[in-house]
Write a structure and sequence with these properties.
five-stranded mixed beta sheet; alpha+beta; 2 helices; globular
């Protein structure tokens, strides 16, 4: 298994509360993972029958319900507007091809990073962590509510 795939798998398991997962990573990665998991536990998915994204901006956390193609960027007319100097006007697009959601970079200089890997396009799986500039998005696909710690 490739390193990126192993990290992605470990990340999804850790987000779901699987305590048997051992993730060997630098302290900052483990700290970020723990922070994201705490965010998900503090903010349960509002409706687990539909797909969502948890938006984490510093200490602010909020849910965004995916209703269809979603353009993300700093421009006010995006479906998901992120007010940050590190986010391009039209940064990326989240879209569904039937049951599979994916992310596509719309030419942002800072790029789009999924589970630590810079990507141009990529299918999304439950628990994927997307970095858009300095904002973290967690894709939650028809998720079950996370267990309490």
């Amino acid at each position: 298994m490739k390193t990126d795939e192993a990290l992605s798998t470990a990340l999804r398991e850790a987000l779901r509360g699987n305590s048997t997962v051992s993730l060997t990573a630098p302290d900052d990665v483990r700290d970020r993972l723990a922070s994201i998991r705490r965010s998900l536990l503090r903010n349960p998915v509002p409706d687990s029958s539909v797909d969502h994204m948890l938006v984490v901006r510093g200490s602010d956390e909020s849910w965004y319900r995916l209703r269809g193609p979603t353009e993300i960027g700093a421009a006010a007319d995006n479906e998901l507007c992120l007010d940050s100097p590190f986010v391009s006007g039209r940064h990326c697009r989240i879209e569904s091809d039937g049951d599979v959601w994916g992310v596509r970079n719309l030419g942002a200089k800072n790029g789009v990073v999924v589970n630590g890997e810079r990507v141009e396009t990529r299918p999304l799986r439950d628990g994927d962590v997307i970095r858009v500039g300095d904002v973290t998005l967690v894709f939650v696909s028809r998720a079950e509510e996370l267990p309490e710690e």
